[in-house]
Amino acid sequence: MRTFVYMMLIILAGIFQSVEFYIIATLLAAMTVALCARGDSRGPVREILAAGVITRESDGDAEQGDGHRPEIEFICLEDGSVILRRHGIRGVTASGAVSLAMELKGFELKIRERSVAGRPDSEPIDTASFILDFMAREHYFISYTSDLTDASTSLTTSLTLSNRPGNRVVRRLI
Which of 28, 98, 112, 154 could form a disulfide with 128 if both were Cys (CB 3.0 to 4.6 A apart)? Predict the structure, then answer.
């Protein structure tokens, strides 16, 4: 039994002195350093600006809040693009504007709505539509923030969107 133990110790000691052992140890160390030094796999942040087409969909008085409640609607199209509609806009007239400032990092999309009220004598609007033609057929994690024109607060929501043809998602802004 003693001889067996001595033989095993000699074999193990021989492994630590072999060239192959040091090559494998060096490769494992290099792979560990490469794994630790690897950057974020989501890629760079893209900033995208989009101007909206503003319309009036409701028959109620947009200034009094009789139109749609504040919500966003995503409609996925066959060609991969997505229509984003913002319903329930208040305080913006036909001479004003609604635009989006978007940050895309991997499949995480942060959308910030910006609006300009316009002239008070113009017709009030309540809907803005945007075409998002940069989205792939993937699952997106979206956060949406709307800065109100008449107050210092904002409306927000978040959702997961699977960009598949015919998919429609509606979320209320709170």
Answer: 98
